[in-house]
Amino acid sequence: MRLISRSQRSEMTIIEHLEELRTRLFKMVIAFVLGSGLSWFLYDAFLEILISPLQGLPESGQIITDGKLIFTSPTEAFFIRLKVTAFAGFVLALPVILWQIWRFVTPGLHKHEKRYAVPFVAASMGLFVGGVYFSFLMLPQALAILTSFAGTELVLLPRAADYLSFVLLLIGAFGLAFEFPLVLLSLTLVGVLDSRKLSRGRKFAWLGMLFASAIITPTQDPITMSLMAVPLILLFEATVLIARLMKR
């Protein structure tokens, strides 16, 4: 694909914009399909990782037998594998997806702004992986709090589909939530925000992050909500500092 200067980008027609977007989306889809295909053969390894938080519960011996979950329908196994491999495929394809997003935006940036391409992709991956890792740190506690409401006479016997949907939703939510600072930095880069606006809106940002944490976390208890909100607030403050340094 030909390189497009800033002046040329401003003169592109809607059709040309849509053609470029189609090209970028096609490459993203190809990366996702390849990542999902590879994940299909690594399914057992991914599944073992996803089940591991259950093994930290006090009743783990009753909840899972030999590290295995149950499924109750012949077709359920296929859809479970499809769900896990699709999620893993997205994670594996994420560098390509982020790069294509950046390349779509790059022609509209100044030359000195384009140098942030590699840091943008690297930071995006780092933040997403950090969010995923952090979700695994809090998963055992979240599961312990949720199961504690049942009392001592009931024991959790989760279906594989229900449990994996819960875990994948939580992991995805944390991974995407940790991308929030990069969104702010991108808006700063294109001139929509600056460090002063971010500083002035600190109170509203903190309230917004607390509110978002209450929605995203599955238990909605203060402890689990804080586990989500505190890292986001720290990342926000780091974003303000970085935006201030970028202005210099």
Please give a structural write-up.
- The chain has 248 residues and is mostly helical.
- The chain has a domain of 173 residues.
- It is built from twelve helices and no strands.
- The two termini are 34 Å apart.
- The N terminus is likely disordered.
Order of H and E elements? HHHHHHHHHHHH
The biggest beta sheet is recorded as: none
Cα Rg: 21 Å
Report the count of strand segments. Answer: 0
Mean pLDDT: 78
Q: Tell me the structural class.
A: mainly alpha
Q: What does the overall shape look like? A: flat
Helix tally equals: 12
- Tell me roughly what share of residues is in helical segments: over 70%
Could you tell me how far the N terminus lies from the C terminus, measured between alpha carbons in angstroms? 34 Å
How much of the polypeptide forms β-strand, as a percent range?
Answer: under 5%
Uncertain residue segments: 1-9
